[in-house]
């Protein structure tokens, strides 16, 4: 049988593994930080009507500039981050924020260039770096997975990257990154600063987003996704807010018509219901805080999380506990961080199922 090693694959892809969170059919799936509440019926009806209307023109290529979607996204962010004053020219979208990140590295990374990331962090950042032949440099975090302004400045001076990658809040730890750290990073580099805000909507109410830092900072890029707060993981819509010149650079590498007419119609319709979707986010935040509050009684402790998941520690054998939960049809995530597992906050029932199964698993140190 032919193996990858027999193929003339690029040297920097040799020996790598693809992104591989298990996709199993289980009763309670809390492993990939999805929004398990789903799309409410009235929102779904509106989306279906919009898709039906788009079908009448499906024989034509879609709007290559997805203008209506960019206007909707700008409106959404401006409502959230008052004062950002974003125009549609500052918005970009793609099939998931993973694709946005890939386009950023196609345009600004590549052979001879580097990004500085701060593991443990979102694994796709380094995988997309490999895919675009961009060097990935590992920065050192502070204790408890934090990154202070001093630390980010020190790591930038030490490594001189072309792009600084900050994940705020960070996956898989849930920990926040302060705006002071993002500002310090920006001032310490002549390169780009990319902030992955996939989970921004789950931050405590009133916490400012890096979007508020965009005015006057043409090298700052902030990505978001509809996969989490908008329960739209299956639709594949991620987006970026940045200077119009950055968006122009992405046009050089995107494939023409990369966002289908159906995707555009569905996303514009979903954004019309942002208030209803954000009310669901509040319910998820309650379940996240409940997990953190209830873990100590079971012998574990969770890190403070500004996202829709919790990393918790105090496990004797994380993989054994992960398996015990799976035996009860509860799937969470083992990221290989010693002594820890990560769980997504689900509905109240799912969260109860997780906590009950964890109590029975008896895996505390
Ligand atoms: N960034 C982070 C930090 C994530 O956790 C994820 C999804 N797990 C993504 C980006 C990608 O999301 P999507 O491609 O679905 O927008």
Automatic annotation (TrEMBL):
<comment type="similarity">
    <text>Belongs to the class-II pyridoxal-phosphate-dependent aminotransferase family. Histidinol-phosphate aminotransferase subfamily.</text>
</comment>
<dbReference type="GO" id="GO:0030170">
    <property type="term" value="F:pyridoxal phosphate binding"/>
</dbReference>
<dbReference type="InterPro" id="IPR015421">
    <property type="entry name" value="PyrdxlP-dep_Trfase_major"/>
</dbReference>
<feature type="modified residue" description="N6-(pyridoxal phosphate)lysine">
    <location>
        <position position="228"/>
    </location>
</feature>
<protein>
    <recommendedName>
        <fullName>Histidinol-phosphate aminotransferase</fullName>
        <ecNumber>2.6.1.9</ecNumber>
    </recommendedName>
</protein>
<keyword id="KW-0663">Pyridoxal phosphate</keyword>
<dbReference type="InterPro" id="IPR015422">
    <property type="entry name" value="PyrdxlP-dep_Trfase_small"/>
</dbReference>
<dbReference type="InterPro" id="IPR005861">
    <property type="entry name" value="HisP_aminotrans"/>
</dbReference>
<dbReference type="GO" id="GO:0004400">
    <property type="term" value="F:histidinol-phosphate transaminase activity"/>
</dbReference>
<keyword id="KW-0032">Aminotransferase</keyword>
<dbReference type="InterPro" id="IPR004839">
    <property type="entry name" value="Aminotransferase_I/II_large"/>
</dbReference>
<comment type="subunit">
    <text>Homodimer.</text>
</comment>
<keyword id="KW-0028">Amino-acid biosynthesis</keyword>
<dbReference type="InterPro" id="IPR001917">
    <property type="entry name" value="Aminotrans_II_pyridoxalP_BS"/>
</dbReference>
<feature type="domain" description="Aminotransferase class I/classII large">
    <location>
        <begin position="28"/>
        <end position="358"/>
    </location>
</feature>
<keyword id="KW-0368">Histidine biosynthesis</keyword>
<dbReference type="GO" id="GO:0000105">
    <property type="term" value="P:L-histidine biosynthetic process"/>
</dbReference>
<dbReference type="InterPro" id="IPR015424">
    <property type="entry name" value="PyrdxlP-dep_Trfase"/>
</dbReference>
<comment type="pathway">
    <text>Amino-acid biosynthesis; L-histidine biosynthesis; L-histidine from 5-phospho-alpha-D-ribose 1-diphosphate: step 7/9.</text>
</comment>
<keyword id="KW-0808">Transferase</keyword>
<dbReference type="Pfam" id="PF00155">
    <property type="entry name" value="Aminotran_1_2"/>
</dbReference>
